[in-house]
């Protein structure tokens, strides 16, 4: 399952990334494999998505969230 497929309040554990370039950026922001992520908010038109990871809130575009594979 991809992070972009979760609904508000749902959680998942980061397993891997589908885009190497994007994975470096995401890992620098705390989205490391094994970290739990929770969807906090979704904008009215569906983009961006606010997630809670590593103790802080991070906003991602739906495309960026779709590169994160969850367990």
Structure explained in plain terms:
The chain is an alpha+beta fold and 71 residues long. The chain has a single domain (3-70), classed as Ferrous iron transport protein A (FeoA) (SH3 type barrels), CATH 2.30.30.90. It is built from 2 helices and 5 strands. The chain has helices spanning 20-28, 62-65; strands spanning 11-17, 36-42, 49-53, 56-60, 68-70. Strands 4-3-2-1-5 form a 5-stranded antiparallel β-sheet. The longest helix is centred in the middle third of the chain and has 9 residues, at 20-28. The chain is globular. The mean pLDDT is 90.
List the helices and strands and how they pair.
Elements lengths: L10 E7 L2 H9 L7 E7 L6 E5 L2 E5 L1 H4 L2 E3 L1
Antiparallel strand pairs: 1-2, 1-5, 2-3, 3-4
GO molecular function, one term: transition metal ion binding
InterPro entries: Fe-transptr_FeoA-like, FeoA, FeoA_core_dom, Transcriptional_repressor_C
Pfam families: FeoA
Q: Gyration radius, to the nearest Å?
A: 11 Å
Order of helices and strands: EHEEEHE
CATH class descriptor name:
Mainly Beta
First-last Cα distance: 7 Å
The whole-number mean of residue pLDDT values reads 90
Return residue spans where pLDDT drops below 50 for at least 5 consecutive residues.
Answer: none
Shape: globular
Major sheet, described briefly?
5 strands, antiparallel
Number of helices: 2
Beta fraction of the residues?
A: 35-45%
CATH topology: SH3 type barrels
The chain-level structural class is alpha+beta
Order of neighbouring strands in the sheet with most strands: 4-3-2-1-5
Q: Tell me what the CATH architecture is.
A: Roll
| CATH homologous superfamily caption | Ferrous iron transport protein A (FeoA)
Count of domain modules? 1
Percentage of residues in helical conformation: 10-25%
E-strand count: 5
């Amino acid at each position: 399952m991809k992070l972009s497929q979760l609904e508000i309040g749902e959680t998942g554990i980061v397993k891997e990334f589908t885009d190497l370039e994007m994975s470096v950026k995401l890992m620098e922001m705390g989205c490391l494999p094994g970290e739990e992520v929770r969807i906090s908010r979704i904008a009215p038109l569906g983009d961006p998505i606010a997630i809670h990871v590593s103790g802080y809130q991070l906003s991602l575009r739906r495309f960026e969230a779709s590169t994160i594979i969850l367990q």
